[in-house]
Amino acid sequence: MLESILDLNSNNVWDLDEEQIAQLWEKERSEEGFASSEEKLLNTIRLCFDVVHYNPGDEREVKKYETKDWATFSSCDERKGCIAVRRKFIKRITDLSYENVKHVTPAMLLELIDRNFGGGWDSIPLSIKDIIESSFDISTTQLPTSRIHVKGGTLEKKVAQGYEVLEVEKGSWTEAIFAKKKEPMMKLRCNSDAKYDEDGNLIRNEEDDEDELDDERQMDQDEDLDNDETFYSTYAAEAAVKEETEEGFPLED
Fold first, then answer.
1. CA proximity to 94, closest of 108, 119, 112
2. Strands 173-181 and 164-170
3. What CA–CA distance (Å, rounded) separates 61 from 80?
4. How much is the pLDDT for 241?
5. If DSSP states are collapsed to H, E and C, what string results for 232-247?
6. 173 CB contacts (<8 Å, ≥6 apart)?
7. Within 10 A of 95 (CB to CB), how many other CB atoms are there?
8. What does the pLDDT average to over 15-41?
């Protein structure tokens, strides 16, 4: 569990439940400077929780939000009342997003597909397919139902490779949908310490100037070497070439 709510980010927020969020919040809410981080934290929490502000003086709202389904805590701004959070549930395949699909298991994904009117992979909108395939390897096959479980067939091979499978019956045929989580990719980031002024000009420092001066000195040395006649004096004179006959044989002295 996080030690500080200020360490909350788009990755670890998925590992917490409502009560943990509330406990971390109340633990640090009174700390100096916390109020300036409130909206940023709430935006992070909204990634996987429903977040609402309610009036603790309104009996109807208290009855609605101060239940076991919600966790509540105080806002830094008293005018906004209290805050209630509740975990978002992915009930339909259209609830998937590029963010939450990263935290869905293959089994959960196939369950969502199965609930999609039983239409199989082709029934899914292209935009949702793109979301799914951003985090999952997906493949499908259609075979006569009598052959779908043949020994050594596609289904058996895919399961051995770690894929989860959903079978969708379509008359005398069965569509098998295979899903496996993609391995997370390493992102290459270029960290530049370069600084620029208000006009967009590079702000140079003494170290940059010294490096450039060293490069110029090296270039000057290389140029001097190219122009140095003594450089070529180290080579022996070219051996005399004997004249040859028309047939290409050397003439006798």
1. 112
2. antiparallel
3. 13
4. 47
5. HHHCCCCCCCCCECCC
6. 142, 143, 144, 145
7. 13
8. 92
Q: What is the pLDDT of residue 30?
A: 85
Assign residue 118 a region (left: φ > 0; alpha: ψ between -120 and 50; beta: otherwise): left
pLDDT at position 235 is 45
Length of the chain: 253
**Higher pLDDT among residues 228 and 103, named by residue:** 103
Rounded (to 5) percent helix, strand, coil in the chain: 40, 20, 40
Phi, psi of 101 (to 5 degrees): -65, -25
Give the Cα separation of 92 and 177 in Å (integer).
18
Cβ atoms 177, 113 nearer than 8 A? yes
Q: Is residue 120 within 8 Å of 141, Cβ to Cβ? A: no
- Please give the structure tokens belonging to residue 40: 């940023």
Record the pTM.
0.63
**Sign of the dihedral through C-alpha 155, 157, 160, 163:** negative
**What confidence tens digit (pLDDT) does each residue in 111-154 have?**
999 988 778 899 999 999 999 999 999 999 999 999 999 999 99
C-alpha span between 76 and 98 (Å, rounded): 31
